[in-house]
Design brief:
The complex is a heterodimer of chains A (about 280) and B (about 290).
Chain A lengths: L4 H6 L1 E3 L1 E7 L6 E7 L12 E3 L2 H14 L3 E14 L7 E7 L6 E6 L1 E5 L5 H5 L14 E10 L7 E6 L3 E7 L5 E6 L15 H11 L5 E6 L5 E3 L6 E2 L1 E5 L5 E7 L22
Parallel strand pairs in A: 2-10, 8-17
Antiparallel strand pairs in A: 1-4, 2-3, 5-6, 5-16, 6-7, 9-12, 9-13, 9-14, 10-11, 11-12, 15-17
Chain B lengths: L1 H14 L5 H30 L3 H16 L16 H4 L15 E4 L5 E3 H4 L6 E7 L6 H12 L4 H15 L8 H4 L11 E7 L13 H5 L4 E3 L12 H5 L7 E7 L5 E8 L5 H14 L6
Parallel strand pairs in B: 3-4, 4-5
Antiparallel strand pairs in B: 1-2, 1-5, 3-6, 6-7
Helix pairs in contact in B: 1-2, 2-3, 6-11
Classes of the chains: A mainly beta (about 280), B alpha/beta (about 290).
């Protein structure tokens, strides 16, 4: 698709992964260092390329705009109906609440695509369709920021485990930033009350896990302190893709500021992904 | 992102009236499997991570590193991903239907550019049909017969091309500034639905583009010389890496899906006078399982 170049210029490339662990008896130490994508995986670019999700979305939005396709946001999907007047080519009529006027509007389309996330309103509108399974109870704090630290492996992907305080996943980011995923567990392994899930708490927990290394934030990114688990909720909106894609109507998910799915932890090397 | 990638080209063909219902059905089968694989991996990985078990973590990581990279996200056999014959499997190549194409370097005949063959053809929603030809001169009768059948407007592929070309005049892809540099027309001169390509170790001095069948003359930007193994990640030619040992009198045909996944591959002996039409029928069988021309 020839879209990868701006990401390659701005992203951070990660080639290795380090493992650290510590307990009351044994201070935090490096237990291993590995090539992230060893040569048995035959790829041209054996690294993780990390860029902010917003940059990737912007790339797609710009490319769509160049192709004459505008994305309209913030209208709320309500319901749909399938007309079977012409059995060979059924028409879908979707109803949504228009963002500007607040009025209920409809759009007729050949295909309706519901991509509105785990709490999909499109799915709820489909007769006889139910979500199976449940979200995980594990809670992780996510912090982006420029770190002031003497931890030596800051520019590798690092898995840090402290027996007493939990785990941290440390991932280099663009603009000199580091992303920390911080496990939040209570003293006896029980869930931490919502009221205590503050940015200060998350930062303090990261400092505990990374002792005896110094850990401070020179700047904290816009996404600071967001909490995630797989049951995270998000708003549902209609992104009306107009123009040449007419014939398909996509219901997309609006992400809360700071919402990230767990999958972001496993970014792809570029040649398997965007460069193609 | 790969959910969208998988769905987009299928939806495009459906909107253009080229898809049988079986095509859209492959979306759920293919992506549901990956979602389940991801949940299982994530669950095990997060548990090993939270338990601070470096050995379990490293083992889990090692087993799944291709999957994590995105390169090892593989689809099962279905109407798009035809299993290899035992004979083709025994050649020892790395290419598998339902998998992405491994990286390989070839030299483009027309401008002597070394290129990454798995990325060279721009993704325009079209399929790719590669012909791996051990000896272009010896394979001429095969190529004449095979290409003649594929470009005949009354054949199945010819009729699909007619429907697709007509649809592209109505639902015309927007032309953007970058297209004046990429020149997508180079890859769709023979058909808006298929890019045809040839990969051969025959030396450049042994044949001219004008010696080839009309279909391959129209495909002059996708004729590749398989002569730069030193630039490959593993020092192999494309044919060796993808297919394995291909005999001097053999020819392989490879279908690649619009999303860059291998679809199906089979080989024939060029000395068999029926081979060209048999290969043509095989290609038609493959596409008729999920495309329709009415």
């Amino acid at each position: 698709m020839r879209l990868a170049d701006p990401l390659l210029q701005r992203g951070v490339r990660i080639y290795d992964i380090c493992f650290w662990s510590g307990s009351a008896g044994k201070p935090l130490r490096r237990t291993g260092r590995e090539v992230h994508y060893p040569p048995n995986v035959d790829v041209l670019d054996p690294y993780i390329l990390l860029v902010h999700q917003g940059m990737i979305e912007e790339l797609f939005l710009d490319d769509l705009a160049q192709h004459g396709v505008q994305v309209a946001r913030d209208s709320v999907f309500m319901d749909y109906e399938v007309s079977k007047q012409m059995p060979d080519s059924p028409t879908v009529t979707a109803t949504y609440q228009d963002a500007q006027s607040g009025a209920s509007k409809t759009v007729a389309t050949q295909f309706l695509v519901g991509t509105d996330g785990a709490h999909s309103q499109v799915r709820k509108s489909m007769p006889g369709v139910q979500a199976v399974g449940r979200g995980s109870e594990a809670i992780w704090g996510v912090l982006d920021g420029v770190l002031d630290t003497n931890f030596p492996d800051l520019w590798s992907k690092v898995v840090i485990h402290s027996e007493d305080h939990g785990s941290v996943l440390c991932i280099p980011r663009e603009r000199n930033m580091t992303r920390l995923y911080i496990e939040l567990r209570g003293e006896g392994g029980e869930a931490i009350p919502k009221a205590r899930q503050t940015q200060e708490f998350v930062m303090h927990r990261a400092q505990q896990i990374m002792q005896p290394y110094r850990l401070a934030w020179a700047t904290v990114g816009r996404l600071s302190g967001s909490l995630l688990n797989t049951a995270n909720t998000c708003d549902r909106v209609v992104w009306n893709i107009q123009g040449r894609a007419a014939g398909c109507f996509f219901i997309l998910r609006r992400e809360k500021r700071g919402f990230h799915c767990r999958r972001c932890m496993w970014a792809c090397p570029v040649d398997a992904n965007l460069a193609c | 992102m790969h959910d969208s990638w998988n769905l987009a080209w299928k939806l495009n063909l459906a909107v253009r009236g080229l898809a049988r219902p079986s095509l859209l059905q492959t979306y759920e089968a293919e992506r549901r499997k990956i979602a389940q694989d991801l949940i299982s991996f994530d669950y095990e990985h997060a548990n090993a991570f939270a338990a601070g078990d470096p050995i379990a973590l490293a083992k889990n990581f090692d087993q799944n590193v291709a999957f994590i990279s995105g390169f090892g996200v593989n689809y099962n056999s279905n109407c798009l991903n035809a299993a290899l014959t035992p004979k083709d499997l025994a050649r020892g190549g790395a290419l598998r239907p339902g998998c992405l194409l491994p990286p390989a370097k070839v030299m483009r005949y027309i401008d002597a550019n070394p290129v990454d063959i798995q990325l060279d053809i721009p993704m325009l929603g079209q399929f790719r049909i590669y012909m791996f030809v051990a000896d272009v001169i010896q394979a001429k009768p095969f190529l004449d017969s095979f290409c003649g059948r594929l470009s005949d407007p009354t054949s199945f592929l010819g009729r699909l091309t007619t429907v697709s070309d007509r649809s592209h005049t109505v639902r015309r892809p927007a032309i953007t500034e970058i297209d004046t540099f990429i020149q997508p027309g180079r890859y769709t001169a023979a058909s808006s639905l298929f890019t045809f390509a040839m990969v051969t170790p025959t030396s450049k001095s042994a044949f001219e583009i004008d010696d080839l069948p009309e279909l391959l003359q129209q495909s002059r930007w996708t004729l590749y010389l398989d002569d730069c193994p030193s630039q490959d990640t593993r020092g192999q030619t494309c044919t060796q890496k993808w297919l394995g040992n291909l005999g001097l009198d053999e020819i392989s045909i490879l279908n690649v899906r619009p999303d860059g996944y291998a679809g199906g591959m089979q080989s024939w002996n060029v000395n068999d006078p029926q081979a060209g039409s048999e290969a043509g029928a095989w290609v038609e069988d493959y596409y008729s399982a999920f495309l329709c021309d009415e």
